[in-house]
Amino acid sequence: MTDLQKLTIGKALNLGLRRAMEEDPKVLIMGEDVGKLGGVFRITDGLQKDFGEQRVLDTPLAESGIIGTAVGLAVRGFRPVCEIQFEGFIFPGFDQISSQLAKLHYRTQGKIKMPVVIRVPFGGGIGAVEHHSESPESLFAHIPGLKVVSISNAVDAYWGIQQAIKSDDPILFFEPKRLYHSGALRAEIDVAGTPQQMFSSQVVREGTTATVVAYGPSVKVALDAAAAAEDEGKSLEVIDLRTLSPLDLGPVFESVRKTGRLIALSEAPSESSLTSEIAARVQQECFYSLEAPVLRVTGFDTPYPPAKLEEHYLPDLDRVLHAVDRSLAW
Amino acid sequence: MPSEQWTHPEPGDGPAAVAAQPSPEQVIAGLRATSEGGAELTQLLTPEGERVPSPQFDKYVDDVDDEALRGLYRDMVLVRRADREANAMQRQGQLGIWVPLLGQEAAQIGSGRALKKNDMAFPSYREHGVAYARGVDMKDLLGIFRCTDHSGWDYQGTGFHPYTIVIGNQVLNAAGYAMGQKFEGKVGDDDGEATICYFGDGATSQGDVHEGFVWAAVYDAPLVFFCQNNQWAISEPTERQSRLPLYQRARGYGFPGIRVDGNDVLACLAVSRWALDECRHGNGPVLIEAFTYRMDAHTTTDDPSRYRLSDELEEWKLKDPIERVRAFLARKGGADHDFFDQVQAEADAFAADLREYTFNMPEPPPERIFSNVYAEGNPVLEAQREEFLSYLDGFVSAGEH
């Protein structure tokens, strides 16, 4: 049986959350403004109305409190889904994430499970003030015990959030906030269908000239660059990582063996980041296939600038194409 | 405390401003005054072992007859003996570190014995006495300190959460757990469930403890905050954490706070039962400040002689939690010499058993490094594990040939 619906990323997340709550009464949503307001991005719109204040909790304003109590609720057998309003506000909760959420399963040799999801709207491009446009995902990918997911499209939004909630591991779920309500990314989803494995990367466009690997909001940039490159007679293969920890680099290795060139794309600063990790592992696995060094197109190693400068800070189509040219010139 | 850290109003600011600002000496004097007895300290048994009547709390220990009192005495002696044995084993290099509880036996046994089976306790890392009261095998605790394990007991079966070393983290975790008890409808009558959370005076400066107070209050969580004020957060005294007695903070969050003599096992039992009862019936949370003293170092790496006077220690020795129960029992004829000797012999055997176990504690195999990082698979970690184990196997093969 199929049930096709055309959804934006935001609506797909909302429907995915709703399905998860219907299926399991232990699923709770908690965070600032997630109830009556439906979240500042309206991702949890209507859920409190239908599930009540005890399953959709408008919490006090403190991120350590949100995550620390979610840890305790998980010990009790609940499956909390926390919303952090913007990625730049997650740091008061960093202690609870790294000290408790990530480690209780290991510390107790599996006796305690931590089925907690932390939803984090992240990335730039919305013209916001400080702390509202960052990409801190590498910090979390570096913490053993956590899984880190970043979605780029509505299909993964719908299925990914449900899979994350079903998982017995703690998951940081990074959502590309500037794409939440993008009409262009509206996708037809069989909401009664079968999802693919969440912890796998995916070739989203095939090509032969060079490979571009990206995640989250950068996947759209990579696809736009690939469309533009085609006009110049270059064929870019684009891979969406989907999960940032664990990294499924198998398809990336395979692609690099075919194209010989890799551009790693991300909005985050480059030093000690996911793109660093990708570059290291690709040179280790594909050394003899590489025709050029792995190049990175990223944000700069600066704090996120005032938004009037973000068009220069954020990697765009032209910077990707420039990197492809540099790779080809090697 | 350096006086420049305090704002002193000038006389020209007017008499009201001067009166509103206590001097640092006044603040410290105030902390000490409410600390050392008086109307605000709930006590049922004096340091001399005399029973003090309490109209409010007597009914919570009505059932404590001589036999029960002997039981509390035995608990404290066993726990202290185990603590001293572990301290000695650390000195002999058999434990990586030890966190002594000496002096805090009454606070831990009194509160621990107030708990019912379905209650949950969230400890910090000094709660060996509470662990014992919850039925945790003390051998399972020692793995942490011999560094073979991070936590080795069945937290669900015992109702005793793993130790939490990051100061104050467990207070929020406990608040969440207690919210869960409430959401599941497990509060409201005598059979209700409650959670108790342990932390120290130093932890009250942490944001997580403040947030835990807020969450528990606004969700009416059945949570007893049990602060063991042992006067010292390593080398920092209580007056470095607060300018008013800690139990008074509860008022600012909208729930009751009470200070109990933390060296009085009967008072700790009574006040904890009262507080837990409030929670069971849906009236929680409650803050208990158990006023006690850390008689030994913070941990075996600490040197208290650098920061506190021996006079202070001598003064607190007179308030010993075990001696006052012994005096009380002896005075009322509730126990004789044979009993005390028998408990001591039992405690020695208990300690010897712990020692033997510790010396023979198996070390975990190398693959334990990789086990249970995740509940579900992680191919990257699995590959790392395989590579490392095969590397280790190489050494074995080389040795065999």
From TrEMBL, chain A:
Example of a GO MF term: oxidoreductase activity
CDD domains tied to this protein: TPP_PYR_E1-PDHc-beta_like
Keyword Oxidoreductase: yes
Domain of life per record: Bacteria
Cofactor: thiamine diphosphate
Xref: Pfam families: Transket_pyr (PF02779), Transketolase_C (PF02780)
Keyword Oxidoreductase assigned: yes
Gene3D superfamilies hit by this protein: 3.40.50.920, 3.40.50.970
Domain Transketolase-like pyrimidine-binding: 7-182
InterPro entries: THDP-binding, Transketo_C/PFOR_II, Transketolase-like_Pyr-bd, Transketolase_C
The name this protein goes by in its record: Alpha-ketoacid dehydrogenase subunit beta
Lineage: Bacteria, Bacillati, Actinomycetota, Actinomycetes, Pseudonocardiales
TrEMBL record, chain B:
Gene Ontology terms describing biological process: branched-chain amino acid catabolic process
Pfam family of the protein (one): E1_dh
Coiled coil: none
Matching InterPro entries: Alpha-ketoacid_DH_E1_comp, DH_E1, PdhA/BkdA, THDP-binding
Domain Dehydrogenase E1 component: from-to ranges: 74-350
Keyword list, A-Z: Oxidoreductase, Pyruvate, Thiamine pyrophosphate
Example of a GO MF term: magnesium ion binding
Swiss-Prot/TrEMBL cofactor(s): thiamine diphosphate
Signal peptide residues on this chain, from the entry's feature table: none
Record-linked PANTHER family: 2-OXOISOVALERATE DEHYDROGENASE SUBUNIT ALPHA, MITOCHONDRIAL
Name of the protein in question: Pyruvate dehydrogenase (Acetyl-transferring) E1 component subunit alpha
Organism of derivation: Amycolatopsis mongoliensis
Originating gene: pdhA
